[in-house]
Write a structure and sequence with these properties.
By secondary structure, this protein is an alpha/beta fold. It is built from twelve helices and eight strands. The longest helix has 19 residues. The relative contact order is 0.17.
Length: 302
Amino acid sequence: MQTLGSEIRAHPERFFPVPESFVPKVLASSNASIHSFKGREHASLYRKFRFAPSPDIPQMVFNYLKEKKEAPFALVADVGCGSGQSTPGLAPYFQKVVGVDVSEAQISEAKQNTLDANISYRISTAEKLPFENSSVDLVTSTSAVHWFNLEKFLKEADRVLKPNGCLALHILSDYIPLFYKDRSESISAVFKEAMEFLFNYAHGCFIHVRDKYQKLFELVPYTEKKRVDTMSETFPMTVTELMGFLESLYMYQTYKALDPEAAKEFLPKTQKRILETLGVTSMDTKVDFVAEFHSVVARKPA
């Protein structure tokens, strides 16, 4: 008998399809309030409720890099590092790890939570990186590259990469199954509904998230490149943490900026549905949050 998890993986479009009405309400707004999520409050939510990617990801990238370069590797740039979820996982593999992000608030959060001596952070755009020509072994980005000016970023990555250096771009899948006793199917449906509603407030760049970076893969100019779609990680999350994850999403923050009163009601209503569907009252109840990652890795010619 096919399990819910295997059915979701085999036919994600049945569970998390791109809605026919997927017309983002925010495309390239100049309204500063829409982008207030870049401030300190949102950065704090991001740090508290976002998780590090699967440890298999940096290991996979390291192995790919080693195919044509010899360790030790001097420098990795984690571009769009946010509050530093993905950056520490790179520390064991490189002599120097530099996380860069355009948001001062996110960099501040990242610095406060960094213990590794070989990690540092800098405020920088992705399109003008603070590195010399041919100085970086790996340029990587997790759940961020779709925000960049892709043409300029890819040119800039090529500028700073060493010959045989690598580009590695990762995205969390837009469908996230939840597992809890015999309620997995019903709780996944509730969470799907909440996510699909919030996608109405996604920026136009989220088309890259929806297609799991396939268009981005096609844009990468290197001949030697591949997709990796086999990595996942299960995170036990309390209902409190699940709600915090939803609140930390850019889409929710945009909804909140556009319609504060409705957004204020969205979280408690969703929370109530989740608790009722689980058949519990405690916010400490844990569900399994299955995060699947899709990666694009490529190598600059020698």
